């Protein structure tokens, strides 16, 4: 009888050990799942708390600088685990970088034709127009050349800065001159519209053709001269997420913010119109 009691006690102890082992195994599986979820969050898709995280690199036309800086601040405030990095420049140069494999998540172009090159290369599937901009003459505040009309840009001795012809602002300026049947020979062709504006601000040229939004952003540093509506040109801005985005969820959310009512208010305050 004594031996039987010992055998039962041993069996009971063994059962307890097996139960404890199973419990430990189950607990380990749960922890591993939690770690894996957090790891996915740190990659930029979704954080362990369920929110967006990671880095979103946005390639955007130089003329979007002020608006997209505001978008960056708004989006990061709403999504504390997301870091938005802006790469601003000429749309044509940004498009070339994207098609050559530079890592980016979002592209906002100053023209549909530039966006089309990115789509044709397979770097994006489609794009949505979100803003429209028109051209304006910018001159230094003192207006030393006495520019009052578009035709004054053809006068001998008047120094004009334009965007390079492959850049959207350069194409738009060329359209303006064609519409007005004018020939303007620039003393400087710049890589993007902000560079043209800088030439004007510093007084290195007498005038430049830029966007309405750039003149507004410059405040009193330049004076604006309107281009007649019947010869003026405009450009439409499309935006898209890129197919090679490492953080597609955060990229889509950023684009949705730009396209939201709040985004439209930011763009309107900068001088953009609806497309």
From TrEMBL:
PROSITE patterns: PROKAR_LIPOPROTEIN. Residues 1-25 form the signal peptide. InterPro entries: ModA, ModA/WtpA. It holds the Pfam family SBP_bac_11. Keywords: Metal-binding, Signal. Residues 25-51 are annotated as: Disordered. Residues 40-51 have a biased composition (Polar residues). It comes from the Bacteria. Belongs to the bacterial solute-binding protein ModA family. This is Molybdate ABC transporter substrate-binding protein. The lineage of its organism: Bacteria, Bacillati, Actinomycetota, Actinomycetes, Micrococcales.
């Amino acid at each position: 009888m004594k031996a039987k009691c010992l055998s039962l006690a041993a069996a009971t102890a063994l059962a307890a050990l097996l139960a404890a082992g199973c419990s430990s195994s189950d607990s380990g599986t749960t922890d591993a799942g939690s770690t894996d979820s957090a790891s996915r969050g740190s990659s930029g898709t979704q954080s362990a708390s369920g929110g967006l995280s990671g880095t979103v690199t946005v390639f955007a036309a130089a003329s979007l600088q002020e608006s997209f800086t505001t978008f960056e601040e708004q989006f990061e405030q709403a999504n504390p685990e997301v870091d938005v990095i802006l790469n601003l420049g000429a749309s044509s140069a940004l498009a070339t970088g994207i098609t050559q494999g530079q890592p980016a998540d979002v592209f906002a172009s100053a023209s549909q034709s530039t966006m089309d090159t990115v789509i044709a290369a397979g770097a994006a599937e489609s794009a949505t127009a979100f803003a429209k901009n028109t051209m304006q003459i910018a001159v230094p505040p003192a207006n030393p050349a006495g520019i009052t009309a578009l035709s004054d840009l053809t006068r001998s001795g008047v120094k004009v800065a334009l965007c390079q012809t492959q850049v959207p602002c350069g194409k738009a300026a060329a359209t303006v001159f064609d519409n007005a049947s004018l020939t303007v020979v620039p003393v400087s062709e710049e890589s993007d519209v902000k560079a043209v504006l800088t030439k004007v601000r510093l007084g290195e040229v007498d005038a430049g053709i830029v966007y309405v939004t750039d003149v507004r952003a410059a405040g009193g540093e330049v004076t604006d001269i309107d281009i007649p509506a019947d010869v003026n040109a405009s450009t439409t801005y499309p935006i898209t997420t890129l197919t090679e985005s490492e953080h597609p969820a955060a990229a889509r959310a950023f684009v949705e913010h730009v396209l939201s009512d709040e985004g439209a208010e930011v763009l309107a305050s900068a001088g953009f119109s609806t497309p």
